[in-house]
Amino acid sequence: QVQLVESGGGWVQAGGSLRLSCAASGSIFLINTMGWYRQAPGKQRELVATITRAGSTNYVDSVKGRFTISRGNDKNTVQVYLQMNSLKPEDTFVYYCKADLPGGTLRWGQGTQVTVSS
């Protein structure tokens, strides 16, 4: 089993920065790609950024040049970060960390709220 715990959300004014963190524990050797997604109330969850085990990254167009995903690991955990700069009110969502496991299994974190005021 893999467990994900997110942190780092909060409130910020437009133009500001936040850094989200996600710590994966458990059977971390099973984790392939990790990513950040976001969701507004009543809407579908959407991709923000992903990073493979080899470090290849992918971003949705709306965050390119502003957000940076990175990944690190130690003996017992895998961490994935989302550095968010030049935040806009339209970046206000609940942000979720996701881990891809073998066989198409997904693990999600509990979500962290990001609110950007104008």
Fraction in helix: under 10%
Give the uncertain stretches in residue-range form. Answer: none
Q: Main beta sheet: strand number and arrangement?
A: 7 strands, mixed
Q: What is the straight-line distance between the termini?
A: 41 Å
What Rg is obtained from the alpha carbons, in whole angstroms? Answer: 14 Å
Number of strands: 11
SSE-based structural type: mainly beta
Amount of beta strand: over 45%
**Average pLDDT score:** 96
Order of helices and strands: EEEEEEEEEEE
Shape: globular
Helical stretch count?
0
Describe this structure in words.
The protein is built from no helices and 11 strands. By secondary structure, the chain is mainly β. The N and C termini lie far apart (41 Å).
Explain the layout of strands and helices.
Blueprint: E1 2-7, E2 10-13, E3 18-26, E4 34-39, E5 46-51, E6 57-59, E7 67-73, E8 77-84, E9 93-100, E10 106-108, E11 112-117
What's a concise summary of this model?
The protein is mainly β. The protein contains no helices and eleven strands. A hairpin with a 5-residue loop joins strand 9 and strand 10 (106-108).
